[in-house]
Amino acid sequence: MLCTAARRGAPRAGAFDRVIRADRRLYAATAFTGAVVDQVTKLWAGAHVSGRPARVFGPFRFELSRNPGAAFGLGRSLTPGITAVTLAAVMALVLAGWRARERAWSIALGLLTAGALGNGIDRITRSPGAGHGAFVDWLKVPFYGPVFNLADLALRSGVLLALVLLLRGAGRTGGVRGCRRSAGCLGRGPAHRRRRSRRPAGPGRAAGTRWRLGGR
Hints:
- This protein is an alpha+beta fold.
- It has one domain (13-177).
- The protein has helices at residues 4-48, 79-98, 103-125, 150-167, 170-173, 190-197, and strands spanning 55-57, 60-67, 135-141, 144-148.
- Helix 1 (4-48) packs parallel to helix 3 (103-125) and helix 3 (103-125) runs antiparallel to helix 4.
């Protein structure tokens, strides 16, 4: 018959699968929502900010600007190459986000994907044409010089959160590399190993054996 450990492992594996699905849903929701909000605000800025004097709301200044280059307006003659790099980054981030095994990493990678995707959509859909489109920047604050958009904000927030996770060592117990038999992963932590080590060996059964054949 099947061993006791195998019978107990089934629900644990099912619970772990549910955690994986929840992390993937969190990643997808963060990336999708961030990209959609970025595009909606750019459409709003194009309709209500373009061609008008800058509008000020508290510390925020709404000022429309189009950037065909990279950060700070650099690389204006390299737009097609920057577009290719952006799309490659989106694909790499999607793969990494789908493999994330911790909620914080799902959020960090989701923010990075949202930022890259939001600006990547600009590159493909904005004038003067596909692959040559300019970023739509519309937001400015006193403590940060360049005009930016919400995709830029998502990128910087994702990078900051990823750095915090790396500094606290989240990648060793979760992150994109998957679990390493931690206490929360399939119940195979130190406590489980201690319980197994205390189980006495009986006739016909070696210590540490996880399953056996027969009914004894």
